[in-house]
What does this fold into?
Amino acid sequence: MDGGVTRPDLLERLSGMRRRLSRSEMRVADVVLADPESVPRKTLAALAAEAGVSEPTVLRFCRSLGLDGYAHFKIALAAALASGGIAYVHRDIGFDDDVATVRAKVIQSSIGTLAALQHALDDAVTEQAVARIGGARRLALFAVGLANTVATDAQQKFMRLGITAEALHDTHLQTMSAATLTAADVALIFSYNGRIKDIVRTARAARAAGAFVIGVTRAGSPLAGTVDLLIAIDTPEDTFVYAPMSTRLAHFVVVDLLATLVALARGPGVVEQLEHVKESLSDQWIADDGPARRRVKLVASH
It folds into this structure.
């Protein structure tokens, strides 16, 4: 039994380990994450019925969390919520909520998402993605809809590192671009739910062309099953009802992580590259009357 499961991070841990559960246990996790405050009032049979699984599946789900059984799980969950656990996701926002309540729900959801992401990311997968991106002749960045903002952000960050990066928003141009990739290129694809036909088509075109395809999307989605390397973002957020908020934040953080690691892999010489790009834009500044710019320092541990 894990003595730490009664801490407020119970729901964060559950969100982080969700993609490692069996398919049936994942259905239980989704019910819990969708409305955690109601679960302590549910019987074992009620939770199993709501998740569409058997009662033994719920018990296996509890043991996967390091708990003795369903009673222990309900006690741990109630204690976590009482201690300030992540009790809110965006679909819990109601029309009767006041500003303070919505503020708490939105911010706590974002905090919970990033805490869960920190524990869920696979370092070996991240290292492989960094190596591929850093060695790419060309980096093609693909997304559709709201996720295009993430692809654009990635283009600016990787371009500053001297990587030939391109983010196209038109889906026809995306497919054409994907078809022109080679084995020396990398396609980095962002999708909040991984179920958009256009983006899956683009991923398939990139793989058919010989490029290495990295997907940042939900595990178990059609896109996840198409890419060569998956960086799974499994946030408890219904992206079909609300515009994704916490999910989008998680994608931006993954871009920051990859760009930072690529920069570190390039060594101290990358500082000169970054300063050169910054100076190229200096004539766009309104004024230069602020404090002197400090040189960026990258410290390598020995």
Remarks:
- The chain has two domains: 3-119, 122-280.
